[in-house]
Write a structure and sequence with these properties.
Strand order of the largest sheet: 4-3-2-1-7-6-5-8
Structural class: alpha+beta
Number of strands: 31
Distance between the termini: 131 Å
Largest sheet: 8 strands, mixed
Radius of gyration: 44 Å
């Protein structure tokens, strides 16, 4: 016997919808697991009747016919998979995988033939299309026309709702072919209607979703919920799972159906049916089945007479009819209950820890399987120390937050998550044995996932601090500022006034003027901006210069894996774009369990890069760019300092032995009597400052003997 063969991204046709999943073929048969619902379907090899290989426009298909007439198609294979599959099935199943051609003419007349529960429409001996008769919801006939109505599939983008067949008249009067065709369809169709008595009926059960009181009637092929306003019919094959969840109060029990596709009322869809029972409620029930049917069809799993709690009797009957196990929570919390009180979205409810997932009831109900979970996170609950949040992130990127969980439940949840080997994002040190949640564990940051926003804010703050220091140094040296001229004028004024009686008033006015002018001048100046411009320009120039001879950086493990599997992704997905290849590759990379091969290749590439880089630096490479950039950044600073030094020597107000000009002294002497005239003199000084420095210097030297003579007089 050969080993098992597995295929990813295989599409299984389900009532016109494409269900993507994983297919495994072993010596026992074929196993298909849906990626969307997690439902596992097993097709035993002893039930195989026929295996065919179809060539479709974009891929290849395996057609499987079982002994009970069930038809299943698996698509997504490649042309070169045919030989491998044929040899494997011939060896393990003792059945041949035969190629079967389809009719491509597109004719609408041919021969209708019933093969088990399959209606095949053939044109010239080749199959044009096949319809499983159990997809039919009703069949009617009028004269020579037969109308087939189908169940609507909400998961399919386009659903086949009606199909009409026309039988030409034979000319013999009554045509029995129409009647025979209709009876053949009705005998195998899955018509949901209450034909005969129900197997069991439970009256006035409390239903939380959909809300109301319903009579639950169980038929062999469907379950009917009959209420005062609405009726729902649930096919048995749409029930995925059954849950029995004890309430936290210890007096009530939830019984939950998981449905796919869901039942709907208008635009509202119900993926779960939630019934609520009291443990004290009991019922006596007699099933409308004969002893022979109980033995042959249900193999003794049901009894004709049943009595006991209502929830137990309902679970027993549904388990036999649906053929599913009933899932119950096995973990008890710190308070001794299997349910954890919490809030999800806007409502309060109960969270249950199951063997293979989490389930939350009841608004809105939610079931999360472990294989859907990407990571788990523990966080604070709005700053409160008495509770915490339990965050579950799925592989699709969606985050479900269960908040306001009591801190006493933390240790149980953490131990449960760790036992299931789920990834905890904020896992720090090992928690203490006590069942109290610690601040360090909740607030601990993960080294693998740093806070990018915090790092960016710190970097921007550091840049602002560096620019602030440079601005302060520029403001401390400003030869054009008016403060220096004011100081010089104040010195000259005091020297010229001598023993004048108005000297006190003049000095006070000058001091007040000196206090007002810095407030007016304290505005951002253009010089720091020019400096930052120069910094940006030097940074840009440094980025543009790259050494083409430097060794290239090594690839990571993911990119090495993507380079090896890029062609495989293109072959599996014809017509896929470049961006979709990267997206698809990322999804496939996350599903790879053993990554040691590519990680070793990445480490080897990194080692070679480091060796090449050390040789490159030893040969003198990588020094040209670092030597050029500092020279360019220094040139504007040197020119700026030389200009400022020139201005400093020319300005007369900065030299200690130079006096003011005649205009300034005259206006100063005239205005020494009052404060208002002092302010006018100040304005005159500012106006004279706008003139050239050379004229001011010459006028100041010429007015020196006159001013000294006036002082002696």
């Amino acid at each position: 016997m050969e080993g098992a063969v597995e295929y990813d991204n295989i599409w299984k046709e389900d009532r016109g919808a494409i269900n993507i999943g994983r297919m495994k073929i072993n010596d026992q048969g074929i196993i298909f697991r849906s990626n969307k619902t997690g439902k596992v379907e097993h097709f035993p090899k002893n039930d195989f009747r026929e295996l065919n290989w179809h060539r479709l426009p974009t891929c290849c298909c395996v057609r499987l016919m079982l002994d009970n007439g069930q038809l299943t198609r698996f698509m997504g294979f490649r042309e070169n998979d045919f030989d491998k599959l044929r040899n494997y099935m011939q060896t393990n199943f003792d059945i041949e995988l035969k190629p079967k051609d389809l009719c491509l003419k597109g004719w609408n007349w041919g021969t209708a033939e019933f093969k088990g529960s399959i209606l095949s429409f053939d044109v010239e001996g080749k199959s044009a299309f096949e319809i499983p008769v159990n997809y039919v919801s009703n069949c009617t006939s009028q004269k020579n026309e037969i109308v087939l109505e189908f169940h609507q599939n909400d998961t399919a983008a386009v659903s086949l709702m009606e199909l009409r067949f026309h039988l030409p008249a034979s000319g013999d009067g009554v045509d029995h072919r129409v009647t025979a065709f209709t009876e053949a369809v009705l005998s195998k169709a899955n018509i949901i209607q209450a034909t005969g008595d129900a197997i069991a009926t439970f009256s006035e059960l409390q239903c939380l979703t959909p809300r109301g009181r319903y009579d639950v009637k169980i038929f062999p092929l469907f379950i009917q919920l009959h209420g005062k306003t609405f009726d729902y019919k649930i096919p048995v094959d749409t029930i995925l799972r059954l849950f029995r969840l004890p309430h936290k109060d210890g007096r009530q029990v939830f019984f939950v159906f998981s449905l796919d596709p869901p039942i709907k009322q208008g635009q509202t869809r119900y993926h779960f049916v939630i019934l609520l029972f009291n443990k004290e409620d009991e019922v006596q029930l007699e099933l409308s089945l004969s002893e022979r049917e109980l033995q042959e069809k249900y193999e003794g799993r049901l009894e004709k007479e049943n009595s006991g709690p209502t929830v137990d009797i309902l679970g027993k009957v549904l388990k036999a009819i649906v053929g599913r196990k009933i899932t119950v929570p096995g973990l008890l919390t710190a308070s001794g209950n299997p349910a954890i009180s919490c809030s999800y979205r806007a409502g309060a409810g109960l969270l249950y820890l199951l063997e293979r997932g989490f389930i939350y009831v009841h608004k809105p109900p939610l079931h999360i399987r472990f294989d859907e979970i990407s990571s788990i996170n523990f966080a604070r609950s709005g700053g409160s120390t008495r509770s915490f949040d339990f965050e579950v992130e799925t592989k699709s990127g969606q985050v479900h937050t269960f908040s306001s969980i009591e801190k006493e439940e933390y240790q149980k949840i953490y131990d449960f998550v760790s036992s299931k080997k789920l990834r905890v994002k904020n896992r720090g040190t090992e928690p203490a044995a006590s069942a109290t949640i610690t601040d360090d564990l909740i607030d601990s940051d993960e080294d693998e996932e740093p806070d990018a926003y915090l790092a960016r804010v710190k970097h921007e703050g550091k840049i602002r601090e560096e620019e602030g220091d440079s601005d302060e140094s520029d403001e401390s040296f400003n030869p054009d500022a008016s403060g220096g001229s004011d100081a010089g004028s104040g010195d000259a004024g005091s020297a010229s006034s001598g023993s004048s009686g108005s000297s006190d008033v003049t000095s006070d006015s000058d001091a007040s003027a000196e206090e007002e002018t810095p407030k007016k001048k304290a505005k951002p100046k253009p010089k720091p901006k020019e400096k930052t411009k120069e910094k940006k320009e030097t940074k840009k120039r440094g980025k543009e210069e790259k050494d083409k001879n430097a060794p290239k950086k090594p690839l990571s493990a993911y990119f090495i894996w993507l380079g090896e599997n890029r062609e495989k992704i293109k072959q599996k997905n014809p017509g896929i774009s470049v961006t979709e290849i990267s997206k698809k590759g990322g999804e496939m990379w996350r599903e790879v369990k053993d990554k040691t091969e590519w990680e070793k290749k990445a480490q080897e590439a990194k080692r070679k890069y480091q060796e090449a880089m050390s040789d490159y630096r030893a040969s003198g490479g990588g020094d040209t760019g670092s030597k050029k950039s500092p020279k360019k950044s220094k040139t504007p600073k040197s020119s700026k300092s030389s200009q400022s030094s020139k201005k400093k020597t020319v300005s007369p107000t900065k030299s200690p032995g130079v006096f003011k000009s005649r205009e300034y002294i005259d206006s100063d002497d005239d205005s020494s009597s009052d404060d208002s005239s002092g302010k006018a003199a100040k304005k005159g000084a500012k106006k004279s400052k706008k003139d050239s420095d050379v004229e001011m210097a010459s006028e100041a030297t010429a007015s020196t003997p006159e001013s000294s003579g006036s002082e002696s007089d």
